[in-house]
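Journal club prep, shared notes

We agreed each person brings one worked example of a sequence with its structure written out as tokens. Mine is Mandelate racemase/muconate lactonizing enzyme family protein. I'm keeping it raw so we can talk through how to read the token line rather than staring at a rendered picture. Sequence first:
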Amino acid sequence: MRITGISTHVVGTPWRNLTYVQVHTDEGLTGVGETRMLGHTDALIGYLREAQANHIVGSDPFAVEDLVRRMKYGDYGRAGEIVMSGIACVEMACWDIKGKALGVPVWQLLGGRANASDNRVKAYANGWYTVERTPEAFHKAARAVVERGYRALKLDPFGTGNFELDHAETLRSISLVEAVRDAIGPEAELLLEMHGRFSPATAIRLAGELERFAPSWLEEPVPPENLKALAKVAAKTNLPIATGERIHDRIEFRELFESQAVDIIQPDLGHIGGIGEMRKLAATAETHYVLVAPHNVGGSVLTAASLQLAGCTPNFKILEHFNDFADAEIKKVVKGAPEVVDGYFTLSEEPGLGVELDTEAAAEFPQQQAHFDLWAEDWHKRDGGAKRS
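Then the structure, token by token:
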């Protein structure tokens, strides 16, 4: 079997463009992969056009390791977000083809069930707090999440906070967290996101204020480039630290593990080179007693691929899910889209990734000039209209 070509399809919303890649073969099998880019979609499409000619066409889709190696190193440049995201789309599509050809789900090819003995994978909701930034509105929105069956949810309550957070904004942010905890009760998991906003001193101060709400993690408390700053925060709080969504090469996690500053890593399957690369990273994390909770802000193909990893990874914690709340209508572009029921996904038994792209439905959502600015007023509404204050 050989790859004859790829086709790309961009599904657009005001705040995110989702890129789907179909890999076609001479035996009629087609696989699908996906990533979500912020502001770089055209660059990704351009890279894939060149990679198709230089590396992809003529390759054996079963020889995934060789294809990834050539795409990553064969252009004699250091692979960053765009290249690793392009690799990820093609790589997961090859796993999809392999699973279909052999008649088994991808998780079976990766070692079989390890962390989903009851066939379920816990989900947490994101994208649900697109409301006015008041305790009353956040309470109502959070209540709707748990009424839908979710047993975990995440929020960034910090507005446009950047390095510091003044006293008034601190009180406002804490009031939002308090309202959410009241809405979901003591048993549901509360996950707190900082989006790399703060200096170590501010992050440490806020962590102390928020500890009484028993969050399961504190995510990206400081910008991701400085591991010593992250270690400073980790040393001064009892809350678990989560980070990693903006690291695009598994090798770059080495120093993070060595720092002992992280408890949960959050690599994005669509940015870190695909399923095989993530599987290697998860195994390395296990040797450091670190859990894996993938960043998952894409659509249903990326969710399905992340679930394949969940099924075979002993140190897998939980999977993020946006598409019940943000742009829920885009789920129709994928046949067999994974659904959350009573707070859990069900691990698919279907061959490959267990999903198919509906290209006609995808065409209903053309690419947009998507924009997402975390330092703009009302960014949390995710409508593409947030403006810098």
